[in-house]
Design brief:
Layout: H1 27-39, H2 42-49, H3 53-67, E1 72-75, E2 78-81, H4 83-108, E3 113-117, H5 119-126, H6 130-134, E4 142-146, E5 158-163, E6 170-185, E7 204-205, H7 211-217, E8 226-227, H8 235-243, E9 249-251, H9 257-262, E10 265-266, E11 273-284, H10 291-306
Parallel strand pairs: 3-4, 3-5, 7-8
Antiparallel strand pairs: 1-2, 5-11, 6-9, 6-10, 6-11
Helix pairs in contact: 1-2, 1-3, 1-4, 2-3
Length: 308
């Protein structure tokens, strides 16, 4: 059976001393028996097992002595397996198949990669693409925790966080800049083309420290905006609030492109403010870059390259 032969058997095979009848035969002896029954030939079994015919013959004589049962009857150069040998070989093949399946299953089973991820990135980008990741060669099971909470380094393998870096004790790579452009409910806009940066000053803006930088980039450095009364903890909550008419949110045109395409939000301006943070992937210093991180980087690069 493939996967169980010893690769370095000597051609001058030396049999172990005969076993007492109370001892269980070795797995190797039983495997040789199964091969002999299957081929009805010591020489063919020897080829399969990378042994000499004389080594196989000696092993079978030793096994017969240990079991106290005749296993083969020789007719000149040919051998016939006895009924006892055939029955035993069938059970051996069945057991070896079970062992092989167990080994294969063990090889396939891998510990889940523990990923802690910023909720917005998890919801907007990662979760919709996990099926694509698992379809790639080398993928791992994922245990995903979507949270902004700071976890101990023993509780995750990869972290995706918004920040500036660097992070002591971790290697990191930038994945995506933190971008923002005004987005608001489509129900607020009768004519998108009529909106101007100045018209936003008449609307409630969902609080965000980047608004003044955005107005400066839009040509209104002295803007005096009006802010909504509620502050939200995540961009995802801001997006929901904006879609429900609570106010105008500064959201990533990349991460929220689907809501714009669906008509839940409109993004009337080309002006985008970037930073000061970015999304980063982190893993422990000294470890190789995880396959999962390499996949994320490539997928993001491919998608961003396709954007107009």
């Amino acid at each position: 059976m493939r996967g169980f032969h010893n690769e370095h058997f000597s051609n001058s095979f030396r049999a172990a001393p005969e076993m007492p009848s109370s001892s269980a035969p070795s797995l190797e002896s039983l495997r040789v028996l199964a091969a002999c029954v299957r081929h009805r030939s010591f020489s063919q079994a020897a080829k399969e097992l990378h042994l000499t015919p004389s080594a196989v013959s000696l092993r079978m004589r030793t096994l017969e002595a240990a079991l106290g049962v005749k296993l083969f009857v020789r007719h000149g150069p040919k051998i016939d397996a006895t009924e006892a040998a055939v029955a035993l070989a069938a059970k051996i093949d069945e057991a070896l198949a079970t062992i092989g399946a167990a080994v294969d299953h063990c090889r396939r089973r891998r510990r889940a990669l523990r990923v802690t991820c910023a909720p917005t990135f998890a919801t907007r980008w990662l979760i919709p693409r996990l099926a694509a990741y698992h379809a790639t060669a080398g993928s791992q099971p994922i245990a995903l925790d979507a949270t902004d909470a700071v976890l101990g380094s023993d509780r995750f393998d990869v972290a995706i966080r918004a920040g500036r870096g660097p992070w002591r004790g971790f290697s990191s790579v930038e994945l995506l800049p933190d971008e923002g452009t005004p987005m608001l409910s489509a129900s607020w806009v009768a004519d998108v083309s009529s909106l101007t940066p100045r018209s936003l000053l008449d609307l409630p803006l969902i609080p965000d420290t980047r608004w003044m930088r955005w107005f400066a980039r839009a040509g209104l450095p002295a803007a005096v905006p009006t802010f909504a009364s509620t502050r939200f903890a995540t961009y995802e909550l801001e997006a929901i609030a904006a879609a429900k008419g609570v106010g105008v949110a500064l959201l990533s045109p990349f991460l929220y492109a689907d809501l714009v395409a669906q008509g839940a939000l409109v993004a009337p301006f080309d002006t985008i403010v970037e930073g000061p943070q970015s999304y980063f992937a982190l893993w422990r210093d000294g470890a190789t870059t995880p396959h999962f991180v390499r996949w994320i980087r490539k997928a993001l690069d491919d998608e961003r390259a396709q954007k107009p």
